[in-house]
Design brief:
Keywords: Hydrolase, Signal. This is Amidohydrolase. It comes from Sphingosinicella xenopeptidilytica. By secondary structure, this protein is α+β, with helices and mostly antiparallel strands. It has two domains: about 1-215 and about 335-430, 3-Layer(aba) Sandwich (Aminopeptidase), CATH 3.40.630; about 220-330, Alpha-Beta Plaits, CATH 3.30.70.360. Helices cover about 35% and strands about 25% of the residues. It has helices spanning about 1-5, 10-15, 25-45, 55-70, 135-150, 180-185, 245-260, 300-320, 340-355, 370-375, 410-430, and strands at about 75-80, 80-90, 90-100, 120-125, 125-130, 160-165, 195-200, 210, 215, 220-230, 230-235, 270-275, 285, 290-295, 325-335, 335-340, 355-360, 380-385. An eight-stranded mixed beta sheet has the order 1-2-6-3-7-18-8-17, with helices on both faces. Strand 4 (about 120-125) and strand 5 (about 125-130) form a beta hairpin. Helix 5 packs across helix 11 and helix 7 (about 245-260) packs antiparallel against helix 8. The chain is elongated. Bound molecules: zinc ion (2 copies). One zinc ion binds next to loops.
């Protein structure tokens, strides 16, 4: 119960922070009045999480809200369940997109919150619990709040704002999904934005925003290695191909590529094998093995170099064992970061939204975001809102994707303010 009642003073305090020069006189009061509903939306969405490409209820909530606000256009069913809203200002100017993701994860929630998820869905015959363990419930509610504030300020808006509510940021195995599919299905057409802004909640000081210039979140590339050889008795390995040993050699050698063969002072990189399957009995050496992993780095030329080195290393090791190796890669996300000029431009707005300041020295993160695909089309801004719940040391706060992940709801009005102020700042710079 402490979550539902004790937060109200904190929320009001955060929403009523003293206006600075960048804050228009009525923005704070508009945010203050929408905050109780942003909290209610977040809790409602949290209690009814939906997996990627299945965000039917959430999308309906979003679309109904945008229509009620009198948006100029509300497109639904983009990339399965995505919603794109168009809000035109009363003055001519540029176009900005604001993006939120709506999907949840296959995790059984153990937060004990009064609005914790009890949802279990069928995934290919397997009962699967679902939880908003990455804070996308907060992102959706925050952007709905920003939509309401900005819809009430059309006189003040120079240009057009696209509100992009996308499904399946976390990806869906075997299905096209997320930002890439949104783009394919015309999220940026016929109105192409000049820039796109997005945010994410993460453990950290509430009131602080992390936004470094240049790369911020890594690229992510899936590695799939399939090995084939001659199956044999584990007591007579010389009569077959020992794919267990070959797999072990591959795992160790791939770590060596990331640590010893490329300049780690230039860009951090990680090559990890997360799944290894080779046989199912102690006394059989299997004729097949598979290894699945991921490449994370902060430069696409570096990513391609790592791919080439992985191919060469696996081929060389497989040849030594007389095994066949098939190596495939799938680019799941590009590098997410901040266009330095764009970050400079909106920095006063971010500072006005972040009572504890903007940390531009924030560390790069090994997490990845499909937001990067939008950034391949138009310049982007991506920042992180510290959101550790009160009473928990930040370093002990359960991370995103933990079954105990939670946020301090005081971050919600901060997110609304960040969206509103950065949007106005950007569009003012493009006013005609
Ligand atoms: Zn996530
Ligand atoms: Zn996320």
């Amino acid at each position: 119960m402490k979550w539902c009642c004790a937060l109200t003073p904190v929320l009001l305090a955060a929403a009523a922070l003293p206006a600075r020069a960048e804050v228009l006189p009525d923005v704070d009061s508009r945010i203050e009045s929408v905050t109780p509903r942003v909290v209610a939306w977040r809790r409602d969405i949290h209690q009814h999480p939906e997996l990627g490409n299945q965000e039917v209820r959430t999308a309906k909530l979003v679309a109904a809200h945008l229509k009620r606000l009198g948006f100029d256009e509300v497109r639904t069913g983009v990339a399965h369940t995505g919603v794109v809203g168009v809000l035109k200002g009363k003055r001519p100017g540029g176009v900005l997109a604001l993006r939120a993701d709506m999907d949840a994860l296959p995790i059984r929630e153990v937060t004990g919150l009064p609005f914790a998820s009890k949802v279990v869905v069928d995934v290919n015959g397997t009962p699967t619990p679902v939880m908003h363990a990455c804070g996308h419930d907060a992102h959706t509610a925050i952007l709905m709040g920003a939509a309401e504030v900005l819809a009430g300020m059309r006189d003040r808006i120079a240009g057009t704002i696209l509100f992009v509510f996308q499904p399946a940021e976390e990806g869906v195995a075997g299905q096209e999904a997320g930002a890439q599919l949104m783009l394919k299905e015309g999220a940026f057409s016929p109105i192409k934005p000049d820039a796109i802004f997005g945010l994410h909640v993460e453990p950290g000081r509430v009131g602080e925003i992390d936004a470094r210039p240049g790369p911020m979140l890594s690229s992510a590339t899936g590695i799939s290695i399939k090995l084939k050889g001659r199956q044999t008795h584990a007591g007579r390995p010389w009569e077959g191909t020992d794919l267990v040993n070959l797999s072990a050699d591959i795992v160790k050698s791939l770590n060596t590529i990331a640590a010893r063969q490329v300049n780690v002072f230039e860009y951090p990189n990680v090559v990890s094998i997360g799944a290894l399957r080779a046989g199912n009995r102690s006394n059989i050496l299997s004729g097949e093995a598979t290894l699945d992993g991921t490449i994370r780095t902060f430069d696409l030329a570096r990513r391609d170099d790592l791919k080439a080195r992985i191919r060469t290393t696996v081929a060389g090791l497989a040849a030594g064992y007389e095994a066949q190796a098939d190596v495939n890669f799938e680019d799941v996300a590009l590098v997410t970061g901040n266009d330095p000029a764009l970050l400079d431009l909106v920095m006063p707005a971010l500072k006005a939204a972040a009572p504890k300041g903007v940390n531009t020295d924030a560390l790069m993160r090994g997490a990845a975001e499909d937001f990067s695909f939008y950034q391949a089309e138009v310049p982007g801004l991506y920042y992180i809102l510290g959101s550790t719940p009160p009473g928990i040391p930040i370093e002990k706060a359960p991370t995103n994707h933990s079954d105990s992940f939670d946020i301090d709801e005081a971050v919600l009005p901060i997110g609304v303010k960040a969206h509103v102020l950065t949007a106005l700042k950007f569009l003012d710079s493009r006013a005609k």
